[in-house]
Design goal:
Elements: H1 2-19, E1 31-37, H2 42-57, E2 62-68, H3 73-85, E3 90-94, H4 96-105, E4 111-116, E5 135-139, H5 144-155, E6 159-165, H6 169-185, E7 188-194, H7 200-207, E8 213-216, H8 220-223, H9 226-235, E9 240-242, E10 255-259, H10 261-276, E11 295-300, H11 301-306, H12 313-316, E12 321-324, E13 327-330
Helix pairs in contact: 2-10, 3-4, 5-6, 7-9
Organism: Treponema primitia (strain ATCC BAA-887 / DSM 12427 / ZAS-2)
Keywords: Signal
Signal peptide: 1-19
């Protein structure tokens, strides 16, 4: 009898432990947050860290599930289904493809996107003025026309190169902006589409001798293999303008201008915290980083010299990063 009582006690304990999943030692249920990015590179990693730090700063004690789709849409769909099976309280999607997978999978659970260039074009929301249903988030749209005008002025660009990922909705949206800017500025445009990061070097080699320089927007596939592109263009002494400063901190891009992805992550984390504290996603407008302190400007003086370019003093004084003699300097 004593043996039977012991076995029954063990079974009861096991049941109690099973039913306590997602609870801390005090018995309070912790929130579960799934954070997924489409691929790993410096900008998206910084964004992810910003989300985590914002949640901590807001006192959100959550169980976090970090996932990386490695650029594969099937994996993105699997991650979305995993988050649904785990009953996360909020799902965060960093970059367009994974955000779309989450928004397609969840109909009621809040989905917060981040680093999405064109959330309306990606059908994540119907308007930038508000979220749509259970979905809202942050856009990383950059001033493409202003960037290309600056590139033309500083590097005397007449023919611009542009490589984009044909399967990324944000890349297609950015291509339209690049085409419009080149038309307005009287520049010739040479484009090259890729499907995976493994194709980037070959794409760079295919256009490098046909252009005066290359402009990069926020294409995740391109940035995940950026060193290959830098090698090709640096060897040809052709300048690169990056719309993502985070990826340019290790050198190789003559000009980099864009907002700070860590601060984008902080803003995204605050949206998640607002929702956990009771706000409805549909009532939260799409967030943009408009404060100048949330953007960065970098000049790589080593690479500028390699390309025979002198950065005007009026722009150099505005930079908060310079790269010179193989070292990053921060103002």
């Amino acid at each position: 009898m004593k043996k039977l009582v012991t076995i029954a006690g063990l079974c009861l304990t096991a049941l109690l432990l099973m039913s306590a999943g997602g609870r801390d030692s005090s018995g309070d249920k912790k929130v579960r947050i799934g954070i997924a990015k489409i691929v790993q590179h410096e900008a998206l990693d910084a964004c992810e860290q910003g989300v985590v730090d914002a949640l901590k700063a807001r006192g959100i004690d959550a169980v976090l599930d970090h996932q990386n789709a490695n650029g594969d849409m099937n994996t993105a769909a699997q991650i979305a289904n995993k988050f649904k099976s785990d009953k996360v309280d909020v799902a965060v999607g960093i970059a367009t493809p994974i955000a779309v997978s989450l928004a397609t999978t969840f109909t009621d659970t809040p989905v917060v996107f981040s680093a999405v260039t064109d959330p309306v074009g990606a059908n994540l929301v119907s308007s930038l003025a508000n979220g749509s249903g259970n979905v809202t988030g942050l856009s990383d749209a950059i001033p493409t026309g202003e960037h290309i005008a600056l590139f033309k002025e500083i590097a005397n660009i007449k023919t611009l190169g542009y490589i984009y990922t044909s399967s990324e909705a944000n890349s297609i949206s950015a291509l339209t902006l690049v085409e419009d800017a080149c038309k307005t500025l009287g520049l010739q445009l040479v484009t090259q589409a890729i499907s995976t990061s493994a194709e980037l070097r070959q794409a760079a080699e295919a256009i490098v001798n046909r252009v005066d320089g290359i402009y990069l927007t926020t294409d995740n596939t391109v940035y995940s293999a950026l060193p290959a592109l830098i090698q090709v263009f640096s060897a040809a002494k052709k300048p690169i303008f990056s719309g993502d400063v985070t990826a340019a901190l290790n050198g190789g891009c003559v000009i980099a201008s864009g907002f700070n992805y860590y601060k984008a992550g902080l803003a995204t984390g605050n949206i998640v915290a607002d929702i956990l504290e009771g706000k409805k996603p549909a009532d939260i407008p799409v967030k943009f980083l408009t404060d100048p302190s949330e953007s960065d400007l970098l000049f790589d003086l080593d690479e500028a010299k390699n390309c025979g370019i002198t950065i005007p003093a009026k722009y150099l004084s505005l930079a908060n990063y310079t790269y010179e003699n193989g070292k990053l300097n921060t103002k």
